[in-house]
């Protein structure tokens, strides 16, 4: 999965960050890690399966 990167001009700005599926995904990471071990191949497979499940919206604006 490729991530987009952007830059913001220096200076003060307001921000709002909204997230979807964050709690569900983090609970699933923890559940699988506790069951299989965080260094196990099963956990690595779960990481790939869960990648992209969390969604974020970042809004930036200036006065």
UniProtKB/TrEMBL annotation:
Superkingdom, taxonomy of origin: Bacteria
What name appears for this protein in its UniProt entry? Uncharacterized protein
Q: Which organism is it from?
A: Actinomadura rubrisoli
